[in-house]
Design goal:
Chain lengths: 405, 135
Amino acid sequence: MTKTIHEINERIKKGKAVVVTAEEVIELADKKGFKKAAQEVDVVTTGTFGPMCSSGAYLNFGHSKPRIKVGGGTAFLNNVPAYSGFAAVDIYIGATALPDQDPRNSVFPGAFRYGGGHVIEDLVSGKDVKLVGSTYGTDCYPRTELETWINIKDLNEAVLFNPRNCYQNYNVAVNLSDRVIYTYMGMLQPRLGNANYCSAGQLSPLLNDPYYKTIGIGTRIFLGGGIGYVVWNGTQHNPGVQRTSGGVPRSPAGTLAVMGDLKQMSPAWLKGASFTGYGVTLTVAIGIPIPILNEEIFKYTLVKDEEIVSQVVDYSQSYPQVQPGSLGEVNYKELKSGSITVNGKRVPTGSISSYAKAREIAQVLKQWIEKGTFLLSEPVAGLPSADSGVSFKLLNERPLSRAHH
Amino acid sequence: MKEKRVVLTFPPNLIEQPIVYNLVKKYDLMVNILRAHITPKEQGRLVVELNGKKSDVDAGMAYLGGLGIEIQSLAQDIKWHEKKCIHCTFCVPTCPTGALQVDKESMQVTFVKDKCIACELCVKVCPYNVVEIQF
């Protein structure tokens, strides 16, 4: 049994495509048997909704009269600095950016109430956002100061462009120390007080296509409630990690760079997030359709929570000091049960990624495909897979005293 | 038997008075102090759970009211903004009383107001400001 994306799209256009979510497909294969289900299903939809720090949006806010060259100057959106090292009126607002006035962790733990992620949520919500630009004058761009309200509907372009999203699996974070610690994995209580994880497990996009056999550059996706595309592998893409016999990476592995029109997106699916003692970020919704081109691809989509394992990592010592070692391996069925056992102790679990919302994303994407409003795209190039030799390296620090001028 | 969770706000002139002692001794109430913030010469706030016979609880409340203490039910001061919640379950292990729960089927978080003791641990934990405690 093999199908092409073209054939699947023809079935979608006729309203005949069989589309199921990555959760539903497990049940379907159980009921109908592997062969029959593989034959029947055209598309499996996946979803994930979690904080993804390497996210941001570029905006072109249009030329003022007289012209100003914010490029090379500074730009702030609701007091949050945006990157302006582009042409005159192009800026990029990153999810983790903070106002200069934010006290950060000077009174520990900082609250980090508002930052880049919140600016993006406000823009998507259609709220006016304050733009302040300051720069030097030139003969062609004489103006040096700009203060104005902007609104997403008036921008020439507003494009979400995230260099790293959608981590294929993630660590389970715990704290072995004697004090509370504040991390990007949340507040971790001392002496294994709690364990936080961050993956949609059996619904997670890259865990349903573990070797990136269908997801590649050019794959059309659900992004932030609108339509987006996979544009590259994400930063820190690390496909060569140890895997289970089913192909599931045992630790964080592949990542995706994605982009899409922010104007089509929704604040329900892009949310600014404040992590006490850590910082701000953006919680991003991503759903990826997996075309069932053959039985092998189908088999991967049947992955269950109990088959997806992750490493328990100490965030008080091991993570910050980059010391290798896992406190044990647990699976997502255990994580979702509400507690796991680490070093013989029962530890309650919490998730940072929303399974309920991942389920909703997979359902929405399924409906779009069933209605024929979303067609699958053929990737134009693949992502580096397990055999590519691509790996995630640490920084090779070279002391400046010995460096060249 | 009656159980009542209340927030007591009392003026500076009452700070020297053994109010909790009186509730126990004179009104035969079990007083469980959930939170307390008392600064000399400023106002004080006590979050308490009162347990006892209905008539005793009512009489105790009347005593507090008569002293000029402002009494508010605890539930009134806690808001869980359901629309803002993304149901990540981040808060669930942090909640000491099980007021924040997750349904294992729907994987959705619910908030049981009656179980909340306003410890505010979830306020620090929730990245989306879903819980608001107004005192």
